[in-house]
Amino acid sequence: MGKEVVLFKNEEKMSSGEAAALLRKIAQKIEKGEIVLERGKKTVNLSIPSQLEVEVKAEKETGKKKTTMKLEVELEWPLGGSRTPAGPLKIR
After folding, report:
1. pLDDT tens for each residue of 51-76
2. Which of 8, 74, 87, 89 supports an S-S bond with 55, CB 3.0-4.6 Å?
3. Please, which residues have CB within 8 angstroms of residue 58's CB and are 6 or more apart in sequence?
């Protein structure tokens, strides 16, 4: 595995409606092929290729004081190339 460098990170509480609106906006930017992440003076521009590897993961984390659920959606692509997708995901 190579070294991972975090270019941008944001974590904040929001309502499920606000989260859905954020995901819709991200989806629109992915379709256009470019997204700009910005918070304060920090800005990251990403060019999104037409082919992506998409990982969807649901996790349950049980701690001593609380149990939390996570839904993670990760988009990945190689710089200067493309990968063949493994197969379609179904969401019901």
Report:
1. 999 999 999 999 999 999 999 999 99
2. 74
3. 69, 70, 71, 72
